[in-house]
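Weekly puzzle thread! Below is a chain. First person to post its structure in token form gets bragging rights.
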Amino acid sequence: MAHENIVVVGIDGSEAGNSALEWALAQARAREARLHIVCGYELPSQYMSPEFQVAQGNVNHLYDSARKIVDEAVVTVEGQGVEVTSALEFGDPTEVLVEISKRVALVVVGGRTQHTGRLADRLLRTVSSAVPANAYCPTVVVPTDSPSSHVPIERVVCGVDGSEHAKMALQRAVWEADRWNAKLTVLVAVNPSAVGWVPAYTFRDEHLHEMESAVAAQLAEVDEGRKIDVEITAVEGSPAHILAQMSEESDLVVLGTRGRGGFTGLLLGSTSQTLLGYSACPTMVVPRRVRKDDDHGPGPVQLVDDDEPGIKG
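Winning reply:
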């Protein structure tokens, strides 16, 4: 069953949350979707023990603070051509957003590229890695610095590895490129140190060419006849490092999750996990839980023969 055409943004009153809100507004407008603003709040863990008595005044203060954050966010985005709704949710922010992701098209959260070691930054990085790892829909992590510089989206990069799940991420990248009339670069990077053996130069080039051909075949399966500007490139090197470099000249990076374990780090995968901390532009993570009929791209796209009358989307 298709998810609702809703873009959800998680906010907390921080600069990172404000960046996520700004980017989510632009995405909701491009999708003609509803923008749903969510603030999840909870008592600090030390207050949750049975012997600790929490004054009702403290609980009310926590609620009032969260309410103010949401109200100010709504005022910021109202009247800009997008339907806006909001909600205050008591609970762990990650759990709140993951639950909501079961029925919406996209979740957007803020992230930081600088590792300062501060508690607030560590907590933010926990949300920005845990939500993409466990969500039921694609999640976009928006770096703090100037999301407006990445809208409109003109350059999309998609990291793939030839797997079936990477094909799902590739489809989402195609949709974004089509939605924004952007150029799409599809990257497949092979890390020699991870392979353990690298063939001779001539055979290595042949191997990279074969990988490009395999990705081209996957692209043909998911592009639905869309006419987009796309380039496929296969290179040697660390996927996370190369994607981080490419993010400096891109407006959106798209990649999938590995999804082989129950722990957040394993579920997200080393490439995704590393990139979320260092990407210079918004990064979309497409989880393994995403199903083909959960969402659809811009369109509709109608495939017809060039010699036949009809409408091409």
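Puzzle host: Confirmed. Bonus trivia for everyone else. Residues 1-146 form a domain with the Rossmann fold fold (CATH 3.40.50.620).
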